[in-house]
Amino acid sequence: MPLLQQYCETGFEEGKSATEILNQFFQDFTPGSSQSEQFDLMFNFIQYVERQVALFDSIEDSAFEQINDLTGRGTITSLLLKAKYENKEEALAKSLESFSLRPVLTAHPTQFYPGHVLGILTDLEKSIRANEFDHINLLLQQLGKTGFINDTKPTPYDEAITLCWYLENVFYHAIPEIIEKLASGLDIPLSQWKNNRLMVIGFWPGGDRDGNPFVTSEITLKVAARLQESILKCYYRDVRALRRRLTFKGVDKIMIDIERKIYQWVFGTTKGYEQVDDLITDLQSARKHLVDSHDGLFLNLLDSFILKVKQFGFYFASLDVRQDSRKHDYVWSQILNQLSQDGATISWVDFEKLRKDKQIEYLLGLNLSLNDFHSDDLFVNETIQSIKAIASIQKSNGKTGSHRYVISNCQSALHVIEVYTLAKLLIGTADGLELDVVPLFETISDLDHAPAIMEQLYQVDEYRQHLIQRSNHQTIMLGFSDGTKDGGYLRANWSIFRAKENLTAVSRKYDLKAIFFDGRGGPPARGGGNTHDFYASLGNTIEHEEMQITVQGQTISSNFGKVASCKFNLEQLLSAGLEGAVFNLSQNQMTSEDKELLDQLADEGYKAYLGLKHHPEFVPYLEKVTPLSFFGDTNIGSRPVKRNASDGLKFEDLRAIPFVGSWAMMKQNIPGFYGVGSAIKKLEGQGEEQRLKELYKNSLFFRTLIGNSMMSLTKSYYNATTYLSNDPEFGDFWKMMFAEYNLAISQVLNISGQSGLMENSPNIRDSVRLREQIVLPLIAIQQFALMNIRNLTNENKMYEVRYRKLIIRCMFGIINAARNSA
Asked: Which pLDDT band, with edges at 50, 70 and 90, does 650 fall under?
C-alpha cells in the first residue's frame, strides 16, 4: 500500500495517467503476474483503503473534543456567556420559548455502512478513547472480515431502520442534554421548560415519494410504526433504570404500572397509552408523590425523563410525505375524468381550459367525498392512500408524527391547492386540515417566481383561513442541490438568499410568518459546508424564528454519528438561529450596495456556469468519462439515478447526488466553485476589486460563501485527470474546467488575503488533506477502470465486468473519506 501510494503521488504530479501509473507499479513489483492476479490485488487494495478510512474516522471521532472547541463560538456555553455578559439572558429565555430547529434525516444515502459495521465503528471509537490497544486490534480484525457493502439495494424501510440507529443511540441522548444545559444556564427548572418544539427531528425515508417508485403507503405506515417502536424501547430502558432509584412508597407502584404498560405495548399486543399526555399524567403523578412525600429525591432523573417524553412523544421523528407536482396534476386528471362521467365534475380537458385562478376556485369549490373513490389506475389509488396514511399516523403516533406534505417542482399556486384540496377531501375534518402543505422551489427560475406564487396563494381566502389555523405559519422549502445544478454555485446561493428576503417580505405583508426549510446536502456544492456561519449571517430581512435543514449521507454519520459530535453540531445550528434574534448583530447586515455587488457577482458566475453547462460536451463528458452511470449499481440507496426512466441521459432528469458525487469522485468538484473565479475577475476588471475585498472583510455571508467554495477547491485534484487534456474528444472541455479551477484559486486567495486555501480553518484543511491522501490509490484504480471501460478493445473486453466492479467498489471508499460528499 505505501508503495502504491508513493507511485500515485509521484505519477500524478508528473502528469501520468492512472493506467500508466498502475501498469508501471505492476511491472516493478509483480513482474510476471497475470491480469487476473492484478485485479485481485487491486480489489485487496480497495478493501484495505476502505478500512483505513473507517479507522481514520474513528480516530478523528475519538479526538472530537480535542479537535473542536466545545465551549467556543457557536456552542451553547458561548451563547450563555454572551447572553450573561450583554445582560440578554431574559431575551434569550424568551426566544427559546418560540424558536425551533428541525434537522430532517433524509432518504438520500451515499454512505450508510450496514448496521453491524456501525456497531463496530462505535465500539472502535470508544476503545480508541480509552487506549485499549488489544481491543482495538481485535476490532480491526473484525472489520477486516466484515463486509462493508450491501449485497442488494436497500429498501426505503431498510434505510429507515439504519436511521433509527442514529435516533436511538445518538439523538435520543444528545437533544435532552442540550435542553438541560440551556435550562441550567438560564436557571429554568426542567419542570418549567415550555418549548417542546425546540428541536424536532424530521424524517424522510418511507415518506419521500419523489422519483422513488419503491415508497408506498404501506411502507409509510410501516416506517411510522418502527419509529414508534424505537422510541418506546428507549422509554422502556429509561423506565427500568428509573425504577431502580424510585423505590419509595406511592411512587414505586406508579412506575411499575408505567413500565408494565410500555412493556406490553412494545413486546405484546396491548397499546399502553392512547396519547402521550396520558403517560405524562402518570409521570407527573409520580413526580407529585416524590416532591410531597420523599423530599424530591432523584427528582432530577424523573424530570429528565419527562423532558424526553415531551420532546419525542410517541413518534420520535416527524415523517414527511413528498411528491412531485406533476404527479398531482396526473392524479387530478384521472379523478376529474372519472367523476365527470357521472356529472359530478367537469373533465380534465375542460378544467385545463379555465384560467389558473378559476382552476383554483373550482377545486376549492368541490363538495364531495373521495374516501370511497377507487380508480383503475394504481398510482392514483396509491397517492390517495399516501394521504390517508398521514391521518392514520396522526391517530397512532400523534399529530406531530406526520403533518407535512412537500411538493417538489412546485411552479404555481395551483400546485399547492391541488394537494390542499386532495387532503381536505380525504382527511379534513370539521375543525380543518391538520396538515402543512410545503411548496419546494428548486431551479433558478422557480426561485425567481416563488414570491409571486406565494402572494397569489396568500390571496386565496380559504387557504388563508387554513394558515390562520396553522398559527399563521407557512413553511417553504428551498432546494440548494438542484439550484446549484441548475445555476452554479454563486447564483444558486445568492438566489436563495434573495428568494428568502422576498418571501419574508411578502409573507409579512399578509401578517404571515415564513418558515424556511432548506434542502441541503453535505458538500458546499449542495448547500453544505459551514452552516453555522451561513445561518448566523442572514440578517433581519430573512425570517428566522425556525430553522429547518435536511441532513443526509456522510453528514449524518460525520456530524451526528456520535453523541459528542451531534451535540456540537446541533448547538452550532441552534446558536446560529438564536444569535440573530437575541443580539443586535449589525455586522451581519449587508447594505443595499453590498447586495447590488453580490447581484453582479452572481450574474457573472451564472454566465460562466451556463457556458460550461450548455457546452456540447457537458452531458457526454458526464456520461462517458465520469462514474455517473454507475451510481445506480452501488446498492447504496433505493432511489434511481435519474427521475425519468426513459433511455438516454438528460441533464434536467439528473438527481443532484449522482451529479455532484460524480464530479467529486473525478476530483473536479465543478458544482462547488465553477464560475467563482470568472465572476471575481470580471468585477475586478470593472474596478470593483477593493469593494470585493471590503465585502469579504465585512460580510459574514460572503466570507462563508467563499470559504465553502475553498473547501470544494481543496478537495479537487486535477492531476488525477491530466491525461484528459490530450483526449481527442474532451481535451478542450477538460482544459476549460482546469482553467476555471486555477482562476478560482487565485481569485479567492486574492479577495480573502489568504496565502493558501482554507488557511483560516487549519483543522478542517488538514483533515481533508489526510483523507484525500488515504484514498489516492482508489482514485487511481477508479480512473484506470474508467479509462479501460471507455476504450474497450478485443484484448480487454473480457475484463469489462471486472472494470465495472472496480469502479463501483472504489466509489464507497472515495465517498466515505469525503464525509460530506452526499
From this structure: low
Amino acid at position 644, single letter: N
Diameter over CA atoms, the chain: 87
CA distance linking residue 191 with residue 304, whole number of Å = 9
Assess contact for 372 and 338: CB atoms under 8 A.
no
Give yes or no for a contact between 570 and 103, defined as CB atoms under 8 angstroms apart: yes
- Determine the Cα–Cα distance for residues 581 and 286; give it in Å rounded to an integer: 37
- C-alpha angle with apex 175: 387 to 816, nearest 5 degrees? 80
How does DSSP assign 305-355, residue by residue?
Answer: HHHHHHHHTTTSSEEPEEEEHHHHHHHHHHHHHHHHTTTSS--HHHHHHS-
CA gap 382, 223 in Å, rounded: 16
Residue 49 confidence (pLDDT) above 70: yes
Place of cell 487476473: 36
CA distance 416 to 410: 8
3-state secondary structure of 102: strand
How big is the CA angle at 434 (ends 282 and 504), to the nearest 5 degrees? 115
3-state secondary structure of 64: helix
Q: Cα separations (Å) of 655 from 6, 329, 372, 617? A: 36, 21, 36, 19
pLDDT number for residue 822: 43
Round the average pLDDT of the chain to a whole number and report it.
91
Band (pLDDT 50/70/90 cuts) for residue 587 is low
Cα–Cα distance measured from residue 135 to residue 584, given in angstroms and rounded to the nearest whole number:
51
Q: Roughly what angle, to the nearest 10 degrees, separates helices 563-582 and 76-85?
A: 30
What's the CA gap between 183 and 483, in Å, rounded? Answer: 39
Task: State the Cα–Cα distance between residues 581 and 99, nearest whole angstrom.
Answer: 9
The string of DSSP letters for 225-266 reads HHHHHHHHHHHHHHHHHHHHH--STTHHHHHHHHHHHHHHHH
Closest by CA position to 477, among listed 326, 321, 606, 311: 321
Kindly tell me if the per-residue pLDDT of 225 is higher than 50: yes
8 Å CB contact between 169 and 122: yes
Which grid coordinates belong to 177? 442534554
- What pLDDT does 604 receive? 97
Per-residue pLDDT tens for 90-146?
999 999 999 999 999 986 554 557 778 878 988 999 999 999 999 999 999 999 999
Alpha helices in 688-790 (DSSP H): 689-698, 700-714, 731-752, 762-774, 776-790
The rounded percent of the chain whose pLDDT value lies above 90 is 74
Cell 428551498 sits on residue: 478
Q: Within 10 A of 342 (CB to CB), how many other CB atoms are there?
A: 7
Starting at the edge strand that comes first in sequence, how are the strands of the sheet with 100-105 ordered?
Answer: 318-319, 202-203, 100-105, 546-551, 513-519, 473-479, 436-441, 404-408, 321-324
Pure H helices in 428-488: 444-458, 461-469, 480-487
Instruction: With 0.90 as the threshold, say if the pTM is over it.
Output: yes
Q: How confident is the model at residue 637 (pLDDT cuts 50, 70, 90)?
A: low
Tally of CB atoms within 10 A around 253:
11
Q: How big is the CA angle at 444 (ends 441 and 448), to the nearest 5 degrees?
A: 75
| Higher-pLDDT residue of 172, 821 | 172
Residues paired with 479 in a beta bridge: 519
- With cell 438561529, the residue in question is 577
Task: Specify the pLDDT at position 820.
Answer: 56
**CA–CA separation, 693 vs 282, rounded Å?**
61
Would you state the torsion angle of the CA atoms of residues 792, 793, 795, 796, taken in this order, to the nearest 10 degrees? 0
Q: Cα–chain-centroid distance for residue 584?
A: 30
pLDDT of residue 726: 94
CB 195 within 8 A of CB 261: no
Per residue in 714-771, pLDDT tens?
A: 999 999 999 999 999 999 999 999 999 999 999 999 999 999 999 988 988 998 899 9
For the stretch 430-451, pLDDT in tens is 999 999 999 999 888 999 999 9
Give the number of residues written for the chain: 822
